Amino acid sequence: MNNTVVLIPSRLAATRLPNKPLLKINNLSIINHVYKIANSFLESQSYVATGDKEIFDEVIKYGGKCILTKNDHKTGTDRIFEAFQKLENKNIEYVVNLQGDEPIINIDDLKNLLKKTIEKKSKVSTLACEIEDEKVLLKHNVVKVRTEEKLKEDNLSTAISFAREIGTIKENIYHHIGIYIFNVPYLKKFVELKQTSNEKSQKLEQLRLIENNIEIDVGLAKTKPIGVDTHEDYLELKKIMEYKN
Question: Does 81 have pLDDT greater than 80?
Fold first, then answer.
């Protein structure tokens, strides 16, 4: 799709797992695993966006495309907007913000979300999957989303709220997957809005949209990706990916 681009924000300064993008699994860095998925999803229309020269060099070394941005962006979405501007492509209608720390995201889930987003003409869309273990509700690292309707394979439902911890099971609560598809005017709108206090305290940039009455549509993912937030996450993911290989 020539009107869509994938941008992958990446930085070295993660507080819980420094230098995370450069950690290797099967002799390939995490950021290049993600880029490989993105390029399979939208070949020649995928880029890493980073303010770190080390990440830039790592992506380029393996034949990927990378855009060097400022290093002081407050969120990944602010970073991809700068990268989007540097592309200077006025034909782009949708920007996919693909997180740089989920190297086993399912391509079919991405394709399905993009298809539904275009069909519904969503302003912003994202993914979520079923919660199979109630203990996840109290895990701070796992973001939860509540939707207006039950998620099904053939629908998108509008997000009501996002939270890190939920004490009890409520209706239509899902494990949020940090992937966003922006209709370009709403990507521009995002960066024009000031950070909200809840966004800053919970470190959830999507709250900037919710609290400014910009709808986020949610699609159901068939598979649950494993994000890399801690050293334990990295070891678990490494074990899974090396076993599959």
Answer: yes
> Can you tell me the distance from the alpha carbon of 68 to that of 226, in angstroms, rounded to the nearest whole number?
27
Say yes or no to pLDDT of 129 above 80.
yes
How distant, in Å, are the alpha carbons of 20, 23, 25, 152, 212 from that of 29? 9, 5, 6, 34, 37
Question: Residue range 61-74: average pLDDT?
Answer: 95
User: Which residue type occupies 216?
Assistant: I
- H and E: helices and strands count for the chain: 8, 11
* The two three-digit tokens of residue 237, written as one number: 């993911």
Side-chain-side CA neighbours of 234 within 13 Å: the count stands at 18
Query: Which residue has 């907007």 as its token pair?
Result: 81
How far is the C-alpha of 197 from the C-alpha of 239, rounded, in Å? 38
User: Do β-strands 94-98 and 4-10 pair in parallel, antiparallel, or remain unpaired?
Assistant: parallel
